[in-house]
Fold this protein.
Amino acid sequence: MPMETNPPVLLPPGADTNALFLAEARATLAGSRTKVVHCLQQLSEPDCTWRPAESQNSIQNIILHLCGNLTQWILHGIGGAPDHRDRPAEFADRRPRSSTELATQLTDVVLQCDQVLAALPGSRLRERTCIQGFEVTLLGAIFEAVSHFVGHQHQIVYITRWRLGDRYQFEWSPETPAQGAPTA
């Protein structure tokens, strides 16, 4: 994931790799959330519910799906919260929501996940659990949930750019050649 929105992960010298993994996972979730919210701030309600075809997902459905996935994999699978996920409903939901409501819902879930990951001792990463019918380690559950979030974050950015065209405002642009800016 590009690092442009993530603050550098700074751990004390000698910090173990488990702590580093958890810090990077938390930073990646936060950075992806920031990118999704940046898109939502540019979109109208019709943009959030738009879908290229009836069988394809809108940004709204992707966000509901992300909230369901993070809740199931991190809040339930790692944090021990009850698992009440209704995955098909995440994709079937057609009730219009504002971009502000979607941003708030996503932010709340990501912040709850951050609290679970912040409290997780690195020594537990090898523990096994069963989530959505898959037997995984806690490390595997975190890796799965974070990479899943990043993948859908890219979809949301793409759909936003598709909807807005030249009106899309980038959150970050390279300013130096080292960052990828033109040299001349």
Summary: The chain has a mean pLDDT of 93. The domain at 17-171 is CATH 1.20.120.450 (Four Helix Bundle (Hemerythrin (Met), subunit A)).
